[in-house]
UniProtKB/TrEMBL annotation:
It comes from Knoellia aerolata DSM 18566. The keyword ATP-binding applies. This is ATP-binding protein. One of its GO terms (biological process) is asparagine biosynthetic process. The keyword Coiled coil does not apply. It comes from the Bacteria.
Length: 286
């Protein structure tokens, strides 16, 4: 397996890649907390290039908050990279603090994942380090308490430490020809439930079914926000007019109602990253 420094796809100006490579090279066997998204897949691929795929393990957290198609896609990307996947069953849904769904929900989710990795995976797979795919943009956001959990469990963040932002990570993913290079961001299903409204397996299943239905209609990038009987659909702006076209509008309504919602609304603001969390962060700062 070629090392990154010998890979002609990376030039002398790829200082970020060199920094990630140097951080990874310090370890004999490393586990990557992996979701199949662009950030974690890029980190996984760089680890495989630097250390060789037999010295890297993709650690995929599995719970009701992970959509079935995301789980399948994660396995496909890891197979492309050539790294084995170890599924880590997590039980954050049993934690009352997670169920309460405050702005710190992500902390409890990541704390559960990293605890399970510590307890059951590191020794079995002889890992001397675990890393995750936080990028430099995410490291600057105030609504990412999962980073606190990573720090408490001594989980490495090579991309953020190398100051690689979202755009840089996507560029590297394209250079590596990863199948997920153009994949839209896919936050966990719990992010669709307003803060301080309980997270439950039933709500997560409704969101998953509604979003799967929308994707089957060609809306590849979508969110279904859970407001009780109301499903508030977020789409990319160019898809909003299409969703209201006669014929397709009725199909949108059908797939979302079949997931268990009574009412279907299309949000004219489009997809909003951190739609529920950022207003709370702003309020606490005010």
């Amino acid at each position: 397996m070629r090392h990154v420094q010998d890979d002609p796809r990376f030039g002398p100006d790829d200082a970020g890649v060199a920094a990630v490579r140097a951080a990874l090279a310090l370890h004999h066997r490393i586990g990557i907390a992996y979701s199949g998204g662009v950030d974690s897949a890029t980190l996984l691929a760089l680890a495989a290039l630097e250390l060789g795929p037999t010295r890297v393990v993709a650690l995929l957290g599995v719970s009701p908050s992970l959509a079935a198609d995301e789980r399948t896609a994660a396995h496909e990307v890891a197979s492309f990279i050539g790294v084995p996947v170890v599924e880590v069953r997590t039980h954050e849904g049993d934690n009352p603090a997670y169920q309460r769904n405050g702005p710190d929900r992500c902390f409890h989710c990541k704390d559960e994942l990293f605890s399970r990795i510590d307890d059951t995976v590191v020794a079995v797979h002889r890992l001397d380090a675990v890393a995750y795919g936080e990028n430099a943009d995410d490291a600057q956001r105030p609504d990412r308490p999962g980073s606190r959990a990573a720090a408490e469990h001594r989980v490495l963040r090579p991309l953020a430490d190398a100051r690689l932002d979202k755009a840089a990570v996507r560029r590297i993913a394209h250079v590596l020809e990863l199948p997920c290079a153009d994949k839209p961001a896919a936050p966990c299903l719990a992010s669709r439930i307003p803060h301080f409204e309980e997270v439950s397996p039933e709500k997560l299943a409704q969101v998953e079914a509604a979003e799967a239905g929308l994707r089957s209609l060609g809306f590849a990038d979508c969110r279904v926000r859970h407001h009780g009987d109301v499903a508030r659909i977020e789409l990319v702006p160019t898809d909003i007019p299409r969703a209201t076209e006669p014929g397709l509008r009725e199909q949108v309504e059908d797939v979302v109602r079949s997931a268990g919602f009574r009412f279907v609304a299309v949000d004219l603001a489009g997809i909003q990253s951190g739609a529920f969390t950022l207003p709370l962060v702003a309020a606490t700062r005010g």
